[in-house]
């Protein structure tokens, strides 16, 4: 006695083929970024770093250490230090905040000299890298000077089991044109085959989208 086994998955698979081809074509048409250069690791924000909410700052006032200390930027973007009840910190560089603190302290001490060091930093939204889609820990991570794709993928734990890493896309806002530009990435080649050419440099505000494999 023979039984005929239905194969409902075949029509479904055939129906999905045009969508898969379209997705591959879109990724293929997107330009590629240049390979990142190897540079010395920097564990501190660059000079253009803009302070964000929840950043931890160390404030040093020369000859008046009691007026400084370690503070965390509040969710409302302000900080409080001895003699200064509320000071806007978010949106400023460490140098700008140093100058503003010095000006405020000049009411109490003569020619204050203030230094601001960012110890733990989260950055503003425009200075974060967002990784979404098929990764172990989708997240928004703070941008650091000379950050690469490999750095970002290590931070989120790599690709998930069904990730289509070589169809990933990077969305970047181009300030010159005011438009978003899309680049294709080869994350699978980078992480699983060690293709260093696939390791590209990142910029603040980049969004990395990793799709899942269709089959």
UniProtKB/TrEMBL annotation:
Bilayer topology: Multi-pass membrane protein
GO biological process terms on file: monoatomic ion transport
Pfam families named among the record's database cross-references: Poly_export, SLBB_2
NCBIfam families, per database record: pepcterm_export
Segments forming domain SLBB: 127-210
Primary location class: membrane
Keywords: Cell outer membrane, Ion transport, Lipoprotein, Membrane, Palmitate, Polysaccharide transport, Porin, Signal, Sugar transport, Transmembrane, Transmembrane beta strand, Transport
Record-given protein name: Polysaccharide export protein
Leader sequence residues: 1-25
Positions of the Polysaccharide export protein N-terminal domain: 45-118
GO annotations of cellular component type: cell outer membrane; pore complex
Transmembrane segments: none
Organism superkingdom: Bacteria
One Gene Ontology term of the molecular function aspect: polysaccharide transmembrane transporter activity
Location within or outside the cell: Cell outer membrane
Record's keyword annotation contains Disulfide bond: no
Family the UniProt entry places it in: Belongs to the BexD/CtrA/VexA family.
